[in-house]
């Protein structure tokens, strides 16, 4: 089924793969934007997105829909072709469920993502335990189309649903002494066959500097492709930090802790010379065992497909470059 959007020849029909609820919300946003006079750019993006969607529909699965509005944040919606849902949900890193890319999709059905609570604690005025339902309602759910670049050399373009982590951080009122944020993820040996193995130190922990955590592009994600997250992508709540290597985007978060000292992180503990705390995407700083200058976009794997050049900060330099002004990024990799 095709849903006709506008008839001035500017917009294309939108295929039904994008849920009608989604379209409806987009149209409402569009009407608001038209009233505010900023619709031009959005119309252009709409046109190209629907055109791309037609040529390669990133068909979503059959999970619960998660309503969202398209983000208007600068840099939050790349116009690149979306990775197919099938690829984004079957080629994963989630070591708690195994180390092969296909393991998480095969094994993560044992993850019970409901009921779920996230404890927020440490150097804040308002420590709290958030039930997932309350966390979901804390702010407006936005759709953000981010590139995600894995440290292993592949990348995807995924429409995430969530809101800026900064919304939650403001609510809990960090103390002046809070310099870092630590993200602790679920480590349930009953549900997760590799917890207990010696590949990594469990639970999987990640961390950000306070200004990175507060950056509006840092997303607390609850969904993708207009639906709640599949388990293998980190249900029910994960981080998405688009200018950093994928492993900074911790999945299935159970605790967020504000600290004065830089937290130890899973991959840094496993191999400090290979994975630094910052892990910003940087084509100029190679991994000790491979180059980071290029990447393979999942879904573009033809024989003649050229690798893509990896961009500084994964292409988000205009938005986040300032965070690292004056820092030696070869040392602080
Ligand atoms: N808890 C947890 N989070 C994790 C990982 C993991 O093994 N465990 N892998 C990371 C890595 S290496 C990547 S590339 C991304 C992959 O996210 P995706 O599968 O949704 O694309 O998740 C990150 N988050
Ligand atoms: Mo990764």
Description:
With 333 residues, this protein is an alpha+beta fold. It has a single domain (4-324), classed as Alpha-Beta Complex (Sulfite Oxidase, Chain A, domain 2), CATH 3.90.420.10. It has 9 helices and 15 strands. Strands 3, 6, 7, 10, 11, 12, 14 and 15 form an 8-stranded mixed beta sheet that branches. Helix 1 runs antiparallel to helix 2. The longest helix is centred in the first third of the chain and has 17 residues, at 20-36. The model is unreliable at 1-25 and 37-55 (pLDDT under 50). Bound molecules: ligand MTE and molybdenum atom.
Give a short overview.
Helix 1 (20-36) runs antiparallel to helix 2 (39-55).
The H-level CATH homologous superfamily, spelled out, is Oxidoreductase, molybdopterin-binding domain
Count of the separate structural domains = 1
State Rg: 20 Å
Q: Say what the CATH topology is.
A: Sulfite Oxidase, Chain A, domain 2
CATH architectural group: Alpha-Beta Complex
Which key phrases capture this entry?
five-stranded mixed sheet, eight-stranded mixed sheet, disordered N terminus, globular, binds the ligand Nc1nc2c(c(=O)[nH]1)N[C@H]1C(S)=C(S)[C@@H](COP(=O)(O)O)O[C@H]1N2, alpha+beta, binds molybdenum atom, Sulfite Oxidase, Chain A, domain 2, 15 strands, single chain
SSE map:
Blueprint: E1 2-3, E2 14-15, H1 20-36, H2 39-55, E3 69-70, H3 85-88, H4 103-107, E4 117-122, E5 128-131, H5 132-137, E6 142-149, E7 154-164, H6 165-172, E8 180-185, E9 205-209, H7 210-214, E10 219-224, E11 227-228, E12 238-240, E13 253-259, H8 266-270, E14 294-297, E15 308-309, H9 317-320
This protein binds ligand MTE and molybdenum atom (MO).
């Amino acid at each position: 089924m095709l849903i006709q959007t506008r008839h001035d020849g500017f917009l294309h029909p939108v295929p039904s793969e994008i849920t009608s609820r989604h379209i409806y919300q987009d149209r409402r946003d569009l009407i608001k934007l038209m009233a505010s006079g900023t619709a031009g750019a959005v119309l252009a993006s709409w046109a190209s997105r629907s055109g791309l969607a037609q040529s390669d529909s990133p068909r979503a699965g059959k999970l619960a829909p998660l309503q969202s509005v398209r983000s208007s944040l600068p840099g939050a919606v790349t116009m690149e072709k979306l990775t197919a849902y099938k690829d984004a949900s079957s080629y994963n890193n989630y070591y708690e469920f195994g180390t092969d890319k296909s393991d998480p999709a095969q094994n993560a059905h044992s993850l019970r993502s409901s009921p779920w609570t996230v404890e927020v604690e440490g150097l804040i005025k308002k420590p709290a335990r958030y039930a997932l339902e309350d966390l979901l309602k804390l702010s407006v759910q936005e759709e953000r189309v981010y590139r995600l670049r894995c440290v292993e050399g592949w990348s995807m373009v995924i429409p995430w649903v969530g809101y800026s982590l900064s919304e939650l951080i403001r609510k809990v009122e960090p103390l002046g002494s809070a310099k870092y944020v630590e993200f602790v993820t679920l480590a349930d040996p009953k549900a997760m066959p590799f917890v207990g193995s010696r590949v990594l130190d469990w639970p999987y922990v990640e961390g950000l500097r306070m200004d990175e955590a507060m950056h509006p592009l840092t997303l607390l994600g609850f969904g993708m492709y207009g639906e709640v997250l599949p388990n293998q992508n980190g249900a029910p709540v994960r981080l998405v930090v688009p200018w950093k290597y994928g492993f900074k985007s911790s999945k299935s978060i159970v605790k967020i802790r504000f600290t004065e000292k830089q937290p130890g992180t899973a991959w840094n503990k496993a191999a400090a010379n290979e994975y630094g705390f910052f892990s910003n995407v940087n084509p100029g700083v190679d991994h000790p065992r491979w180059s980071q200058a290029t990447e393979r976009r999942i879904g573009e794997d033809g024989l003649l497909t050229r690798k893509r050049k990896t961009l500084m900060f994964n292409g988000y330099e205009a938005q986040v470059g300032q965070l690292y002004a004056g820092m030696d990024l070869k040392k602080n990799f």
